[in-house]
Amino acid sequence: MQPSSVLVLKAVFSHYWRHGWQTLFLLVGLIAGVGLWSAVQIINQQARLSYEQADSLLGVQASYWIHSRTGKAIEVDDYIHLRRAGFRQIFPVVEAEVSTQQGQPISIIATDLFALPNNLLDSGEGDTASDWLSFVQPPYRAWVPRQLAEELELQPEDQLLLRDGRRFPPALIKSHSQQGRQVLMDIAAAFALLNRETFSYLVVGNIEADQLSQLESLLPDRLELIENQQHLDLQELTQSLHTHLSAMSLLSFAVGLFIVFNAVRFSLWYRRPTFMNLRLMGASSSLLLSAVLIETLLWSFVGAGAGIVVGLQIGKVLLPGLGASLHSLYDATVDTQLIWQFDTLLKAWGITLLGLLWALTWPLYQQLKRNSLPANLISRASLDERQSRHYLALSSLALIGVSIFLYPRIDDAISGFLLLGLLLFGAAWLLPTLLAFTLRLVSHLTADRQLIARWLIGDGWAQLPALRTAMMALLLAMTANLGVGTLVDSFRSAFVGWLEVRQSADIYLRSSKIDYDRLLDPQDSSTWLADSHRRIGVTSRWQGRQTLIRGVDTGAPDSLKLPLAQWSGITPEATLKQWQSEENTLLANEQVHYLAGLQLGETIQLQTDKGLIDYRVIGFFYDYGNPNFQFYLPYDEVVNYWTQYHSRGIALWLKKNDEATQLLAEKAMREAGAETGDWILQSQVRKLSLNIFERTFTITAAMNALTMIVAAIALLASLLAILQERLPQFAQWRALGVRSREQMMIIACPILIFVLVAWLLAIPLGAVLSWILIHKLNIVSFGWSMPMRWDMLPAIQLGGVILLVVAATLMLASWQLRRRMPNALAQLGELA
Amino acid sequence: MLSIQNLNKSFKQAEGDVVVFSGLNFEMATGTSVALLGESGSGKSTLLHLIAGLDQVDSGEIKIDQSSITSMSEAALAEMRRHQVSLVFQQFHLISTLDIIDNIRFQAALCQRFDSDYEALLIDRLGLGKQLKKFPHQLSRGQQQRVAIARSLLHKPALVLADEPTGNLDEQSSLEVMALFSALVKNAGSSLLMVTHSREMASYLDRSVLLHSGKLGEIGAA
Ligand SMILES: Nc1ncnc2c1ncn2[C@@H]1O[C@H](COP(=O)(O)OP(=O)(O)O)[C@@H](O)[C@H]1O
Ligand SMILES: [Mg+2]
Fold first, then answer.
1. Which domain holds residue B197?
2. How many CB atoms are located within 10 Å of the residue A116 CB?
3. What is the mean pLDDT of residues B137-166?
4. Residue B199 domain flag
5. CATH code for position B93
6. What are phi and psi of B93, to 5 degrees?
7. Ligand 1 pocket, CB under 6 A
8. What is the pLDDT at residue A376?
9. In total, how many domains does chain B have?
10. Residue B21 falls within a domain, yes or no?
11. What pLDDT does B95 receive?
């Protein structure tokens, strides 16, 4: 490089040394945007990778499962029989839920470690052989994933205490891929712990076609072979959730980009004289452009690199919660150990570079094309400003028009988010015009009164260009905050109310070996049992989706209060009565309505063991978070039409929900054949359900808060840039005798007016956002709806928070001003 | 009116202190006008800044109408500038977002001292009648400086400090503006301390003083 080029580079870059604040904001904007985006990217990628190996549970790819047709457990003899017949790829699994002393539910998965291929324990650390031996010999070992061990505060070799006083084998704390949050142990250890001697199901690994037919013929009638379709289903089921996350991260990236754009605009503005001088001294515009391109490249390296590091950290914090909810919602296992992928970095760098090119290089190119500074800067600037405001408003109207056109045509999550994006940006781009309109309105109202008022308004006009971008970022952040907040609140209140009804029983018992007649024997149970509800189910597929046909007791307490979303009768109660008394009627979950398009009153045919039977749909019930279809039929009809039903357990209402009655119930359940881990208390179920719920939304809340911080930084950046630029002007006011308090007021008033307008706009916009999220996106992506709950309180609280943010930034600005004023005063009168 | 005693001021620099004033004394009677002459870099602007309280003295005392400004707080200095002193610089420092009439009235509005007859007189004498609804960037330099002059006089300040007010104008309009300015200051009954390069400009005023090596010397009546 020639020395002259080095000089040009030096002149161009020196700006960032001299304006530390701007450099800082540029960095923060870049890193925050890239960080949030890449965090979600990393999480989604992790999930996708996990799904790809989803069924390689315990290191073996399950191509088939062997289940009992009646839902009963599988006897050890059946397993030994199959192994003896030469099926080395079959191994047994025990799955059970137990709860700790503190009531935290833990899921156990156990298998025959002798039968497994050796690779399970082989993770490259430690002495595998002795590890392996300690697993299969008493006192055995419980393999606890790191994340869970941390939550339970479990140290290596600790023996976790369960609610019923039993203890886990000594813990080995180590994470294995696909283990998720399950505790892994040898089958013998599980048998000892759970006091059972049957398997939950068998897994069939890789199997040839001819072997398969041999296996089918060998299988006793009570067992069935089920093909593993989970892999496909999982991708499909979780797709919407990941789309949700991606959309959120793009929003954060957009807000980050607003800051960058802001910072870069200021940096270009300040360097206009530099560029002018360089050109006058003979630097060609291509040389200047290359200098700025180099600058862009450097920024993109720094932004992408640091952003990814931040993204990894955010991902690390958010992934366990998301993994847990994916597991409970979809049975999907997501590794909580992050896998690093190089192409995430490449992608991050790519979008950063694109963003920067748009923000930095393009405006410069245009500036250079204009060739020189216009003679009359102020009029030129205000003309530019008005023009760009008009362009923005026109584009905004176009975007809003397109989104109105799109609204009735939304049929999947992607088009839904496209609509939201268009609408949000449309609103954001309209904001400058609205702000200008407000200023004009205020000036109209105060016009002839006072010179000070006119001064204040005039200064608002002067601040508008500099604050414009920050206000747009703030509007986006506030809207997202209100919209997503309303979604979560609506969901929480709907979900909690629903849980009250759906899980009103005190104990849920599910086991294959229960003798129900004995359990429910009126004489024995009269001391503790108030009511019960036994359910059976048939699993099948309907319209390509996994479907559960449930036989329920239509007169049980929870059936009588089943929360309906749509009903064909006059009232929900009347509809439930009709369902109880009229034959061939059924209730379906909302998913059937939204995802399969079934309408109230329509008749469907169900494949039963006695042929096709017609059923009329008379109601749809809420079934939050269920990815599958469900039909509710009276118990007797299911028994009548399907021979291969299995027990879906029993719900028990206690006479009194106290410790003593619970112990009576436990005793009765054990006597009826139940084992530890077969039942779960209502309080635990509810806690578990609410936990899943909260975890699912921690990620949303976190993204929301981060986006808000990013917007606050944009505001601060703009304010400080305004101070920097206008310092000489402020000094001149002081020379005219303006008090410092008056000066702060002049600076603060327009900002407060702008923030007020943005906040007022964010309220209806947030409502629209949550309306679309709840009534469109949730339905097209998950197939269920909920009543929207709009509350003014969060909006008011948000207003308070924003006011605090503005106050804090103003205080920082005023401190800066006081620090720099003496110097500016001393330089007053000198030609710039 | 204005009294400066034993003023010392130097600027701390990496290469060593730049001593601007050492033991400077100056007196100025009410209603008089004084031209401050001196080479470039002799400290003329610094002196004006110190008198307006925009910069701080090292030692010595500056009194305006018997009250010492060297011991005033920042807030008190702002009050003093608001009511008693006005400044006119080579750069016009108009408020770009206000129209001409509002710019003229600005300081008068701040200290709520307003005389509409005097305003009409100023506008008429300065020939700004047709410009009142325009904005600063729509005026020529000479016109902008006239607006700054009108602004500095409308509230009839006790002391007007001017730093090369015509330095940015061509010679013809410089002389015009100068003649108007000195006449209007007399008319308002204000005192004027004006920095200038040119003896011709100085000749419009009552006295001339020369700033040289940190001290002031009388040049004698013009
Ligand atoms: N803020 C400052 N910092 C350092 N030196 C200064 C500063 N302001 C003025 N000076 C120095 O003080 C001397 C007087 O400056 P000034 O009052 O502007 O002169 P004049 O107006 O007579 O041309 C000069 O040598 C100048 O370099
Ligand atoms: Mg000077």
1. 30-48+73-221
2. 17
3. 90
4. yes
5. 3.40.50.300
6. 55, 45
7. A 826; B 11, 13, 18, 20, 38, 40-46
8. 42
9. 1
10. no
11. 86
Is residue B12 assigned to a domain?
A: no
- pLDDT value of position A430: 93
Q: Which of B11, B36, B48, B91 to mutate to test the pocket of ligand 1 (most atoms within 8 A of CB)?
A: B11
Q: Does A297 touch chain B if contact means CB atoms closer than 8 Å?
A: no
Whole-angstrom distance, CA of residue A275 vs CA of residue A363: 13
Nearest-CA neighbor of A257 among A35, A57, A58? Answer: A35
B119–chain A nearest CA distance, Å? 15
Residue with tokens 């709860």: A99
pLDDT given at position A832 = 43
A825, two tokens = 């005063």
ipTM of the complex: 0.88
Q: What is the pLDDT of residue A374?
A: 40
Mutation for B interface: A828, A830, A831, most B CBs within 10 A:
A828
The pLDDT score that the predictor gives to residue A161 is: 83
Quick one: DSSP state of residue B138? G
A825:B98 CB<8 A? no
Q: How many residues does chain A have?
A: 832
What distance in Å separates the CA atoms of residue A178 and residue A231, rounded to the nearest whole number?
Answer: 13
Task: Look at residue B24 and tell me if it is in a domain.
Answer: no
Percent of chain B beyond pLDDT 70? Answer: 98
Residue A373: what pLDDT? 46
Predicted TM-score of the model (pTM): 0.75
Chain A residue with minimum CA distance to B54: A825
Report residues of chain A scoring pLDDT below 50.
1, 54-56, 59, 123-127, 373-379, 832
Report whether the peptide linkage leading into residue A139 is cis, meaning its omega lies within 30 degrees of zero. yes
**Alpha carbon of A822: minimum distance to chain B alpha carbons (Å):** 7
Residue A294 dihedral angles phi and psi, to the nearest 5°? -60, -45
Residue in B12, B46, B50 to alter for ligand 1 test, most ligand atoms within 8 A of Cβ: B46
